[in-house]
Amino acid sequence: MGYAAQTKVAPECPATQLPIAFHEATTTDELAEQIGGLHDIYTLTVVVLMAAVWLVIAPTVLGNAFMAPFEKPANDTFVTVQDEFQLSATFPNPAEWTGSMVFVGNLLFGQFLATVTDYYGRRRIISWSMLVYGIIGVAASFSPSFPFLLMMRLFSGICFTPIFVTNYVHAMECLPFSAHPMASLIFAATWVSGYCLASPIAIIFPHWRLFQLVSSLPCAILGIILILFLPESLGFAISGNRPAEFRRYLSNVSRFSKRHLRYNFSKLVDTEGTGSQEVDLKTLVRETTKKEILQRVVLCSYLWTATCFAYNGLSFESTVLKVGNNHVQFLLSGIAEIPSYFVSPLLFDRIGRRLTVIGICVFFAVTCQGMCILAYFAMDDTWMFLIFWLLAKFGASAGFMCLFIYGSEMFPMSCRSFALGICCSLSNIGAIAAPHAPAFGLLFPGGTYAAFGLLLLLAAVVTSHLPETKDMHK
């Protein structure tokens, strides 16, 4: 393969026009650094496209706080799933499965698509999953019965891992290691924007069917855009030994960049690749079941499960707090996430990944203890309680974002999507339980927050056994 064997300069970028020189790149990280990371217009566009996926799916997931709340406020005129299908508020509340079924579908089938992305590539699976997710969401808005709605939510969950985890992996594989924390801010900003959009959508369209329809249509539209324009990730093109995809990505980069790229594709594949055009399932399993990698998968799976339970539990609870208006509370819970997305990358660079995650878990556990005490003494209708609640939401969102950065750095590229897919799939156990989290309060006042705090305190212990990845790619 003559193309692969030579040192190359990006097409249409003569070296005489370029003052910046690089050593020949022999790793994906070195080549991504040469390209410029987020300073390269094309790479930035790819990252923004992947982040936009989080923007449009956020209302479809967190909108359950309005569509099927644990307890509907007395003065709320929104027509919920309970209202239309006349579901009784028994224990467990059947309407809560409106939120849970997405994660049930992801738990049962999400890992299959995560495996496929390591076999056939990121681009196709992400794009088509996004389109199918939107179409199923639209179909759910016309559900003739509650069981049909649950079935549609189950089917949409099958597509969830590619559009929530693999799309993040795709973006990180187009960037140098040094740009990962900043890229996480882009994802965080789009997620929080989509989170906060759920409230105005609920106000403008105060019926669960309209909410479901309006929030799902953008997903289908974005899916079409991704099918037409999304490239394969730079990292996968190298690790999968796909020179055509690799050349196409660099050709698009060269349209905007004036950088001098020096690389040897054969050496890149030897360093990062699997040595074949396709990674078979046996290879993925063999890579993932290596003792060191398997231990990380097990520990990360618990970390993901506990964090997803706490984060989603607090999010779904935001519309039923006893302090203030439910829409104001929901927006505040989204706004509380914003500072965490700046704090996490800063701490990541200062004290490292592992200590940051441990610190965030302990902080969350302490705030939950404060809420538990206030709720036990019937002070959960005070502003002091709301402050503790928002601090807990800050901690949960910081931990949630850390999962993606830390996880994407912890596993080798050859099985990264597969390993993260396992973690994400098992985390659905926590996400499934999240809509039912208020039931812990039936044991004793503040029981829900005691459960959140205990699980995250154990997560801090689990994280202490994971490796530090801060300097792993330097």
From TrEMBL:
Subcellular location: Membrane
GO cellular component term, pick one: membrane
One GO molecular-function entry: transmembrane transporter activity
Transmembrane segments: 41-62, 97-116, 125-142, 148-170, 182-204, 355-377, 383-406, 418-437, 449-466
Keywords noted in UniProt: Membrane, Transmembrane, Transmembrane helix
A Pfam entry, by short name: Sugar_tr
Claim: Nucleotide-binding is one of the keywords in the record: no
Membrane topology label: Multi-pass membrane protein
InterPro entries for the chain: MFS_dom (IPR020846), MFS_sugar_transport-like (IPR005828), MFS_trans_sf (IPR036259)
KW Cytoplasm (keyword) present: no
Every Major facilitator superfamily (MFS) profile domain range: 44-471
PANTHER family xref list: SOLUTE CARRIER FAMILY 22 MEMBER (PTHR24064)
Protein name in UniProt: Major facilitator superfamily (MFS) profile domain-containing protein
Native source organism of the sequence: Mesorhabditis spiculigera
